[in-house]
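Entry 14. Two folds queued back to back today. First construct below, sequence then structure tokens.
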Amino acid sequence: MTWLDVGNGWRNIYLLSCMVQMGALGCLFAARGWFSKSRTACFLTGVAATPLVQYLWTLLLAAVWPHAPRMVYIGALPAMGAVCALVMGVVRLRHLKEKLSQLLAYVKKLVRFDKPALAALCFALCLAMLIGPACVRFMSSMDSISGGDAGEYMALGQRFCEDRSLGNLLEKEETVGHFRGHSHFPSLELYMSYGLFHTDGEVGYPHDKAAFTGLGMLIFYAGAAYLALLLHFCREKKVCVLLGTVLFNLVPELYWSVAGAPRDIWRILALLWAALAFSGLKEDGNWKQYLGKLGWVFALCFTVMSTHVVCFVVLPFIVIAWVLWRFLHAGLTSYAGAWRALLRSVGLAFAGAIGTVAAFAGNIWCFVKWGEMSPWRLMTTFTDAPWYDMYMDIEYKLDETTTHLNFFEAKDSILMGYATPIGTWGWRLALIAMAAVIVCLIVKRVAMRRQAQEIRRNADGAVAVCLFDHGFGAKLASETGLCALLCLLTLAPMTGILDSPLYSFSGSFLKLPRYTLQWFMLCNVMICATLSALIDLWPGVIRRVKKLSDAAWVKTLPAWLCAALCLFAMVKGTNQTGYTNTFYRNSRNVMESQSILLDNSFRARYGLLMDVAEHVAEDEKILITRVGYQYPLRGKGYLLTSNPIVPLMNLPLEEVGAAISELNVAMLATEPDFWDNRYYPLSTLHEWLMQLPPEQIVETEEMRLYLIDPALVPYAQP
């Protein structure tokens, strides 16, 4: 068998395992009605939770039984999923006829489309046919770690599979030089480890196709969470949900995060899932239920915060939006008890804050020790060498992290997000919706107060019972208000209110759009939720105008508006003169790429490096310029910009050779463009390396190897 056969075999086992888990979790969530009134949304929420459950399972075993057999790591979850599905099936077997009739009714409802929804379905299907195959092809290829950071995360996951040491993953003060010592919690690495365990015992290329596929699948999990949000806030209105699927194409920078920054998709999935979970969470219940919810919110926030450091400035605003929503909901639906609801909500939010800080502890430790949030941004050897200023600009992102924005001056740049309109319209509609909800709240409170006073005046006897008919309007205002709060409050980090001398979030979020992807997705949901609310309110509006209320076409006008927006978004998102940063336009090359089709890009890129590395002696070192090389090198490289190695970049030219000899360096690996276009040519190390004999500098389109040990030259034939 070829390496591709071996890798695909384990990938298929991994996919089967994931499908069992997705089905079981989806059915469990749907049966319980967790987090939404829409059963379909509940099912998708369970599907989206699958990778988070896999990460938590690996974390649990890493903490309590790290050396458990591989089958425990990869076999327990699908086994529990299968048992869960079997139990749910057996329990409902006696109601089989009733359940089948319910299923039939559900299918009939699912396939029934009015004309506007049918038109929107055509555009959604067209988009799915355009970007779906590209997503599937990319997901099943090993291109999913084409970005540098992803290779480091993969190597860390590989190291855990080999040594089963959670402490090595949590290490912040890297003293060897293999890795950067991440301040973030290693959740993605543990999720990758779950995929890496799907091998025949040997961890590493070419056996790890399952882990690559797991990275690619994150976009589908995130898509499931996004679709669940649309179903929840649009109250299953097909035309609005389909509009949201078409608008998905207009989220800026999304393809590049899928292709090169898996941790961003990991973060987006977690944040969208948090928005879903809080949308279905209520603060009511007895003290036992309340204690359970405290633990649940702690676990939820810990899980979400552990996915990415950026969550520290997004997750708290999701929780704040939920607290304000529960206060708003209580004000809309009850005459008394709003302040009690607020107090109980704040208590749950406090548990969430503890979970957030627990997952953020690594960053806090780094700040206490060094005055910096991330150790990979810190060099223990500060220098005035010529390359250092460029290092600060490129690696530390000095321009982004020190740029403080005035939101109202930079509003168009922040909201437009590479010329896509969804940010601007999401923000506008969120403001309009919030204003309408506040007006509704005032009107409802005044009406309830008048009704209560009237009952008190006319009460005959010691006890009077007051029942309020809140109507559909209050529920609609409550749900739309939460969507608006989520959209407005998660914009906060981009406005500059959190900027400090230590870090500028506004500058980073503007100049690194992939950090704001979750906000653009929430803007899509806001647009669709507003149109859904308009469809619900429209009959009441046209009833006031007799001439309009008699016209049949007027009744479906908002639905046709959604269909027209689907057409507009489809044309603009695929046209050469349309929005320049759509998922479709950026992913077109995937279907044309022979390397992705044949899945040989990993070997083409790193084959020479791996072949030469096999002949490097155990006591010799391989210096690398990118952390992504650590996966093909099985974590044996030494990173030039890690604290133990960086002094090599500061030495006078005449001392470089002796230092290289003392370190016993056999080879330095880099990419031609990466080396030449960054700060390395300004160092004396570069000058020393260029003095090597020509046969010791081997270059291909992908790699450049400086063979300091001449004995490696025969093995470095491109």
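Second construct, same run, same settings:
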Amino acid sequence: MRKVLQQLKQYKRDTFLCIAMSALEVLMEILLPAITARIIDQGLEAANLPAVFRYGILLIVMAFLGLVFGATAGRFAASAASGLSANLREAIYSNIQTFSFSNIDKFSVPGLVTRMTTDVTNIQNAFMMIIRVAVRSPLMLVFSFVMCMLISPHLSGMFLIAMVFLVIVIGVIMVVTLKIFRRLFSKYDDLNASVQENISAIRVVKAFVREDYENKKFSRASDNLYRLSVKAEGLLAFNNPAMMIAIYFCIISLSWFGAQFIVAGDMTTGDLTSMFSYIMSLLMSLMMLSMVVVMISMSLASVRRISEVLSETPDLHDPENPIMEVPDGRIDFNRVNFSYKHGSGKNALSDIDLHIKSGETIGVIGGTGSGKSSLVNLICRLYDVDEGSVCVGGIDVRKYDMEVLRNQVSVVLQKNTLFSGTILDNLRWGNPDATDEECIEACKAACADEFIDRMPDGYHTHIERGGSNVSGGQKQRLCIARALLKKPKILILDDSTSAVDTATDSKIRAAFAREIPGTTKIIIAQRISSVETADRILVLDNGRINAFDTHENLLKSNPIYQEIYESQVKGGGDFDQPA
């Protein structure tokens, strides 16, 4: 809760003003029945018209003030609650940006989306009720009971009986529903996951005619959410019957005993009228408090889920005195062991001892799951090793400022992502200050200029979200050009030319040799033609180095490389290249 409330920041003033206005509103409303009693007793029953006018004007003024105080309190409540939710979303988003890949792995993407939408909205609604209703209702309850005690201590005892009854009923309901709400919000994650997965892969769903299967999967998630919601709301529905029992009990008791007190002369008609007003205020305050408790019960699960994200600290940290310059593109793996879950015993990489000279072009090849992507993720410190060390420029990557290191290690990942905006906007992710000429040169090196020049708006062509209006090969070439604009000391291509034909792939590699000869280039590929011209080729197998040599030597001595070569070249060639 403390983590969440820290995000109030500049809205603390609005919060306290809302509480103050609510208190003044309650004060006005509490005094209204007392003035009404004066009108009846001193005005109407005494046939004193001036007293009726005098108290009537006072009644109107106080009602108007109560209206003003209430409207002002509502405005401040809306401002404070909306401000809190805005700050929460910003804090969550900012903290997510600091996460390492291992941190992000702890929270599913749908789970993070639910936290920033549904959970934050729940907290916003609960906070508004707390500073508005949860302040107003207890004050109204206490003041109403005090006024009842001043009018008739004997009749006030029945209110205590009704209050005890309601507190017990509401307490039992809240204990049970709180557990249900905790389970309910975890089901929101499943629902969002189903929606996100289906929409992001809608082309695959339609291609395999799996709409019915996806509908059933979504229906299961939705049905689970429905059943839990009905169960929780069904229990909360007992609030109203319990409240009505308490109200009717008080009205009947007050009417019976109040009539007897009036006949005996122990109470006036005005006092009995005001007692009815106070009893309704008192019981309605209890009802509002029960609603607040329900909202708080719902929001507590949301508070816990949001606090998990806000409390999460990045696994990777900059050192106290980080190194701010990368000398060159030399890479050294010194007896490296790495696993995605530390201490699990399931290593993604084992005993990696590898030394690459600055400016070398290194090919990396191996079967699926052999550890190719894991290897290059360690170079730019997206993860930290379990044992050993990874050095860039002769310095352990853990000693660098991470931003400096990643600016000098440019990575084109397997999953290429473009963002909505023009082609130039996307290219300048690599270098915000890049000129148009530099962008064009990078596109020429990545062979992206071939298709950009054919587009109606050229480099100002708008890219749809996710790059949906360009092909896979075009997307890959734009991502390569974006990486080249960083002018890195190390360039990593993680299977990033898989959708490009072999002729274009060859042109790109030739451009690398010509344009960035001093940059260390690591090319992960599934086809031999992409790596055979590399200075050396690394063969990985089951997270271990199987061989590290030139294309010619591997063809002579390495069974794995020979098998891949035979299947691709002599078995019919690459998919777009004749044998």
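Quick look at the second one. Residues 574-579 have pLDDT under 50 and may be disordered. Residues 49-98 form the longest helix (50 residues).
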